# Entry
Amino acid sequence: MLQQIEGSAAVAQAVATCRPEVIAAYPITPQTHIVEGLGDMVKRGLVGNCQFLNVESEFGAMSVCIGSSATGARTYTATSSQGMLFMMEAVYNASGMGLPIVMTVGNRAIGPPINIWNDWSDSMAARDAAWIQLFVEDNQQAADVHVQAFRLAEAASLPVMVCMDGFILTHAYTRVDVPEQAQVDSFLPVFEPRQLLDPAAPITMGAMVGPEAFAEVRFLAHYKQLEALDLIPRHAAEFEAIFDRDSGGLLKSFDAEDKDTVVVSMGSVIGTLKSVLTDMRQDGSSIGLLSIRSYRPFPKQQLSDALANARRVIVFEKCLAVGMGGILAADVRMALANLSIPIYSVIGGLGGRPITQDNLRRMLDKGVQDQLEEPHFHDLNVEVVHRELERLRDIQRPGSSAESILRDIAGADAAARGSR
Amino acid sequence: MTKVPDSEQRVKFYQTGTFTVGNRLLDEAQRTVQASVERANSLDSGHRACQGCGEALGARYVVDAALRAADDQLIAANATGCLEVFTTPYPESAWRLPWIHSLFGNAPAVGAGIAAALRARGREDVRVIAQGGDGGTTDIGMGCLSGVFERNDDVLYVCYNNQAYMNTGVQRSSQTPPAARTATTTVAGSEPGNELNSGKSVPLIAMAHGIPYVATASVNDLHDLEYKVVKAMGFRGARYLEVFVPCPLGWGSRPADTIKVARLATQCGMFPLIEAEYGELTAVTRIRDRRPVEEYLKLQRRFAHVFAPENAHQLEALREIAERNIRRFNLLPNEEAAP
Ligand SMILES: Cc1ncc(C[n+]2csc(CCOP(=O)(O)OP(=O)(O)O)c2C)c(N)n1
Ligand code: SF4
Ligand SMILES: [Mg+2]
# Structure
């Protein structure tokens, strides 16, 4: 049903139509509205016999999910940022045991400095945790991809994260066609667990594995993710047949074919990029856009096919591998290793720094002329950085950079105001 | 055994020297689960615990009794630790019930998740037990455990307390007694062994949550242990059982002395046996033949240094712990308790 609705509420309603049986969650901004919404629906008896557990931590949340999923219940949780780190041991455990839990990540920066705003540091910290990671561009996709996520998780017997940009999506009111119960029921079959704690047929789960078999177990984790590369587009096609909407899939090209320059990114910035690129094309640039929707498994082949004719690629991402550079860029480079074209890594939007059409346009104008340094830090205040580096060099005990920079910016702003 | 008022006690368990419960003296109904040929043997033979492992013994009794109480409809969650490692070396498993090991510190929450799933699926006839060592329970698992308690999740949590991190090579836990030697509280310096005035009582913390049932038990009285498991299974909601399980390897005791060491711990007052319902103490097992703390300590090399003259204050501190337990829980029979 079409609604003007907050992203979190749309996700909560979509998850509810998936008939979850156990939800365990711990509050953290910007995930809160999703679990508040679900908690309320459960309490009103709108989600069948679903059990909603207010747990004592994210580690507890994921651990409850592990127990409930292993006992055959369709299980859901959501988190962000510090919460993801706090549950990390259990995050690895859930995938290691092949438990089809679905978790929303309201993507948020990781501190310190503590910061509640959007970037992808949290889900990237779990990049190698063997979960499937799906990114969504808008709140319609956010709602739709959750429905697909349960289907995928249960078909692959793997947990799935649906990554949606914190605030930009979770707190945005937009028009969303929230999936209808009858349609969801025809898309999402009843959960048939591959392994089940059941007194009628006792099994041991979580046994010790030594060097003699560990490599094979890890290989199979990889192999199962590669199998999901087939499932994801198949599910997206089935979903489209029922819902008449293109949501999900491995990746999505927006006029990327036969363009000299292709921008690769994920998540909500795709929307902003689309507008900028439309303008640039009108101004004569040969530039297209490619959105990665399945980050794990990473669609290497599909990406390299889609970019076969590109002359340069600009990867824009909201995360940073400190000491290395772009994370998504590294993946894209690996996927395009057979093409000898420049691949630029642009890191922006960290900790919620606004990504505007203007600043994107300035960056891309440089990009199409091969003028981006490696990696390029988008919209970085270079003067502030230089002043802090000077302080670090000159002052005996300079204190924390986070606080110095805030003081510096406040001072500079005050000076600017004074001079006006 | 004061849980049966003296007037009702049909059999007095006086067996010279041992106090072993004479099972065959009991009514059929009162006999132990282990005495029955129909016992589940849920923790099967062939596992790799050390000789004389108190934890292996305790776990078998606990899980068998819980299974019988649940009509075999039982699922277990297990923390990382000796019990997990010695029972499930891939591809073997000593468990004959549905059993899951997830992590070191999350067994209570995994149990809560199992219980939630059963409830959602209308299978509340299936019961849940979660278990772990003292480290997994009272240290790294304390947050999850407290969560289960305060939410009153329908889980029986059993802590096998061997007073240290045994699986990783005998390091100190919050349950390691003062002065005891572990690999991280070595016999060195002016205060050899573990710090005095450290540690905590998790049964009391559990009682502070007001949960339906809390009890302590020991492998020296398996009849009592089974009784408490069965009683715990009679409640719905969160229940906590702490079982005293000597570890010959970690304590430096003879494997053959496991039961003796456990018995002496209760007889000297170091490990009080109690029961509580909804936060109120309801029963204590009175000490029938009180033994000096030294007798208990002397069987364990982890306490050897407390007998050196320069460490007399450590021995005194341990005696005081026993005295305090005896006073706090009124552990002496009435005639002896009177001043
Ligand atoms: C998060 C984490 N930290 C540390 C460990 C290492 N570790 C495994 S078992 C164990 C000790 C277990 O001690 P306890 O819970 O008392 O059980 P016991 O082996 O004594 O029966 C430790 C420290 C781990 N597995 N996970
Ligand atoms: S180290 Fe101790 S607890 Fe572990 S198996 Fe051996 S005796 Fe049992
Ligand atoms: Mg221990």
User: Anything to note?
Assistant: The longest helix of chain A spans residues 211-243. Chain A touches chain B at residues 21-22, 24, 49-51, 53-57, 59-60, 63-73, 75, 89-90, 93, 97, 197-199, 201-210, 213 (CB under 8 Å). The CA atoms of residues 70 and 195 of chain A lie 7 Å apart.
